[in-house]
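For the sake of clarity, the format in which proteins appear in this thesis is described at this point. The record quoted next illustrates the convention:

___
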Amino acid sequence: MVLNSILFYFFSALAVVSAILMVTRRNVVHGAVYLITTLLATAGVFLLLQAEFLFIVQVILYVGGIMVLFIFVIMLVNLDVSLLQYQFNRQRFVAAVLALALGAQIFLAIKMGQNSLFPTARVPDISPKNTEAVADALFGRFMLPFEIASILLLVAMIGAVVMAKRRV
């Protein structure tokens, strides 16, 4: 049980640190590498929670597939032009307002859930039929959001193909 706690804190800290590094790097490729690290750390947390299906989906689909697509798009975009544009430096006020709003949301979430941070009740054992439970939830209660997400991914794929075709 102690090893699970140590691994959980390790993967959590790794995910948070690499997520912060991802958004603070000026080099887009370095940011993508830190995003891969964040996704792998999240997969480690899924494995610790005995959610093997989510672990393997996270590794194969997100780290393997989506990140290849991200790297492909990063390589297609002309980075020299984007480095010369300083359009984001003029939006510090908007960034400050959004950071304050996010901070207020986090503060309220912690304040409202203060009594539930350290639960005293025993957590029920996770069922070994994890994949079946995910499938039941995904194709039962969450069918509409699942279909909406698939349509959004299809639109993003078509957009990437159109952008790539314009350059060729």
